[in-house]
Amino acid sequence: MQTPALDPEPELPITPRGESPQGEKKPSTFDVPKRWFAEYRKDVLLITIAIGSPLLSLWFVHKTIDDLKRSMWVWHLDSSGVMTYAPIALADPDSEIFKEIVMQATEVYLKRNPAGISNKELLPRYFSEASLKAIEAEVSKAAPERMRRNLFDQPEIKDRPTRLDVSGGAFRYRVVGFIVRTGVIDGVNERLVGDFKIGLVLVPNDDVRQKGRFPYIVKQYRKEITWRNIEGPDAHEVYESALLK
What we know:
Number of strands: 10
CATH class of the largest domain: Alpha Beta
Low-confidence stretches: none
CATH topology of the largest domain: Nuclear Transport Factor 2, Chain: A
Strand content: 25-35%
Helix content: 25-40%
């Protein structure tokens, strides 16, 4: 019996890869970034979490420490006789209490008589030990001239203190005003007026029981005075505590 012949297979047109049957090139759908992300997105996510978690933890710890430094710390004695020293609230550098401390510290520091600071007993309430030493050195240096000319200084503050910045729990302020200086030389009265600008840095008071009644004290300061009716190098006077940069 004769086997019927099979029909030959039809020949299919061969189309080069990336080309349409009409010979036109098709744009490639292969995207390297998308392919890479599709294969490694799980690894990328794990690496991101591994790197981000410690950084986020460090930022949170730093922020918590900074908030604690800025907090007001007070003594509290409860009914059972237990004394607690802890922060009660986050200190606001724009609050009136800090501006009052700055203004009062400025007046105590600048108000002087021939012997030195007029209210010397008030200085420890507003200034740290380092600042007190700087003030003592400044007053001692000027003492002979002040005694010879019998000088009195009366400061007047023009405006409320201006807050400059907050860093590491310290508050920086600037106070501007003028000083009226009076004295007598060889029986002749003299009167000088000078514009002053003083910068103060407040830090938390860690010795409230001995320093007085203020939660923050002056750690650093810088004073500038420009005398209106004096010409030459003596018209400008600058003094700053050793710690102020």
